[in-house]
Amino acid sequence: MTTFHTEPSLHPNMRTVQPGTQRRVSALTCAVGIAAMIWALGIASLAIAQHRNYGSWGFDFGIYDQVWWLIGRDGVSSSSFISMRGMPVWGHHVNAVFLLLAPFARLGMSAEFLIVVQAVVLAAGALPVAWLGRTRSGSAGLGGACAAAYLLHPALGWLGWVSFHPEALAVTPLLFAVWFARTRRYGRLALCIGLALSCREDAGLIVAMLGVALMIGAAVARFRSGPHRGVRSDAVAGLVTFASGLGWFFVCSRWLIPTALGRDVYYIDRFYARFGTTMSEVAVHLATHPGTMASLTAEPQSRTYLLDLFLPLGGLPLLGISSLSALPQMVAAIAADSPYVRDIRFQYTALMLPGLMLATVEVLAGAWRRRRAVGRVLLGWVLLCSVSAAFVRGPLPGSLAAWNWKLAEPARATLDRAVAMVPSDARVAAADNIAPHLSHRRALYDFPNPFGWMIYGSSQADAAKPTDVDWVLLQPDQLSDRHRVVLNEVRASGAFDTVLDEDGVLLLRRR
Asked: How far apart are CA 27 and CA 454, in angstroms?
């Protein structure tokens, strides 16, 4: 009987699927593909509905939407300036992946396009997870279960909730990279590594540690089966991966960003100032003061964060080599000053997910091969943890946290009308939840900027000028007391006329 293939055939030296199981391989891919499409459709629909109901944020969705629009207009020009953040495009982060998305910005696609792209890319990561699970264990069922654990992980759903972040696009290329390394197709491995690195500069650290994991895997294979050509090529691929990741990180953080910004990378001062004034000082301090990291890890928020990362996978990533690739981002999250970095609802988990999933697959597949009964128990444990975590901690429909999606806005019609009244080339200051609807322009500020400083540039010395704004669009009742004081000063200055004041929506225009 004729069968069809969806996964490439394995290298002769790799574990092969038993004869007569080709149908099961195709069934696995179809099942996982359908599940991934359902996940992508559901998350994208919720995120778009939230965005349309003014539930997305200028930080960071509006920032990246403006970056995408600017790169679509200017390409790699160093003159492009993110008015939402007060930094040059390449001084904020090195998100070269926007060069691939730039043609769609030139075609006039809206911010919702980015939401859909992210959801589809993240969902596609279930495929390499399933294939790796199957090839490493010989069980299509285990591969499908690994894919389910990936799609159910709360961190993945929350990435959709925060609308869009370019580092989230690195998750699937990293997973595919390991699949291609496993099947020894090094050209495709290099392509996936390149895509992952293009998403953000700190993806380089994840890639470097992934290269370390590949080299360790090659060393273990050599110990078990002796030296042969396949093991040597695996070791070389791991070494090249390590060098590429580390090289990219240093080129971006020590040259590209400082050159564009005129100083060291801004997030050192914002997140790690207590450990040093430069990236090198921070790294040396953390490396030479293990007690500091231990005490930070023991803090309640850090413990909750780590449980949110590991418990959905039954704690198995702690036993897998590939979890090394999650280590740099995990250390950065625990050491950071901002509490948002240690919250599973935000984007800081994105670059940890590949390592955690790969380590889970390693442990499950290893147990399955050695003793099937133990493998089944572990697999059941992981599925129980995944389903429970998705229900208790994730944002998927039907979960206890699903209420976090903003799917209604009483003043939506008025807000839409106000947004439509603002000229496309106008200079605007808008509330954080309104800014992503106005970000395809060169001058957009997150109120109270530029009338009062708030997270703009690297410090308050970079504050923009109030005269740079011609329109102001807010919902005054939703402002903090401090920001409401700034609004009152703006209105009292007599520089602006009220164009619209209805349903709690205020639109001002400079006289």
From this structure: 53
